[in-house]
User: What shape does this take?
Amino acid sequence: MIITKVLNNNVVISEENHQEVVLMGRGLAFGCKAGDDSRDNLIEKKYVLSENKRELLLELPADIIEMADKIITYAHAKINKKLQDGAFLAMADHLVWCDFTYPRSFLYEKFPHVGH
Assistant: This one.
């Protein structure tokens, strides 16, 4: 898959089957830029985006995206059910609201399992 946007070293936006996807993986985008091939062997997670959710995602900070992924992964492990990709974006949107409302130290203190 071709990278369309690098959000940080671990998160990129790409396209698959004419749908935009968020790809995550440790070091996935290290040294990469838009137009490069993604390193498929480093992809750990993939979220498919609908067109109307693309704009929202592009406005989210990369660390919020990673935190949302960690929370969804934690929830998935606890309830042992697959969550829809929309849950990821809803969680990220909620975290943005929390980020404006509470200091980050509060969030990390209350939710240490999502990490820094």
Q: What stands out?
A: The chain has one domain: 2-110. Residues 2-110 form a domain with the Transcription Regulation, Sacy; Chain A fold (CATH 2.30.24.10). The chain has a mean pLDDT of 82. The first strand starts at residue 3 and ends at 8.
